[in-house]
Amino acid sequence: MGLLQRIDRDAERWLLLVFYVMLVITMAIEVLRREIFSYSSIWGEEIVRYSFIYLAWVGAAAAVKERAHIRIDVLMHYMGPRPKAVLYIFGDLVMFGVAIIALYWSIETVHVSAKFGSVTDGLRVSKVWFLMAVPLGFALMILRLVQSFIRDVKSLRDGTPVYEGDKLFD
């Protein structure tokens, strides 16, 4: 398996792992510092907050990839492969349109922050690094939606069952 295939398969998983570990370790350190030493730092709170923001946006892209986002699919059980593929394609196109608009506006926010040089309160680091979580998340979503669209069009063309992701409940 090539490097690009591994990145395509596991990118969100590894990013989620990194941000989750960073969040948990920092939060544990801050709780211990607060309880044992009666001291806490503002940077710890900021790292946890921004790690959580990255977790949410990268997780949203992972949910799009695995079709794990919340949806009502009761009617899907009664449809054949072709109508089901058409509905998934329609849903992906709508989500793609929303993601393009959101990507544009989130990049605008990052641009304004960079223009005025805003920094975080505790870390004194440019807010651009943390605001980039939103455009990164939407860019990953767009990539995954394009992949989903290609996969669904192939299923529609071939008449094969469309990929529906893993089921939480059966």
Summary?
This protein is mainly α. The chain is 74% helix and 0% strand.
Describe the structure.
The model has no long low-confidence stretch (mean pLDDT 90). This protein is 74% helix and 0% strand. The protein has helices at residues 3-37, 42-66, 81-116, 128-131, 133-158.
DSSP strand (E) fraction? under 5%
Low-confidence stretches: none
Number of strands: 0
Q: Report the sheet with the most strands, covering strand number, pairing sense and barrel closure.
A: none
Q: Quickly give the structural class.
A: mainly alpha
Q: What distance separates the N and C termini?
A: 32 Å
The whole-angstrom Rg is 20 Å
Q: Kindly report the average pLDDT value.
A: 90
Query: How many distinct helices?
Result: 5
* Helix content bin: over 70%
The coarse overall form would be elongated
N-to-C series of helices and strands? HHHHH
Tell me the layout of helices and strands:
Layout: H1 3-37, H2 42-66, H3 81-116, H4 128-131, H5 133-158
Helix pairs in contact: 1-2, 2-5, 3-5
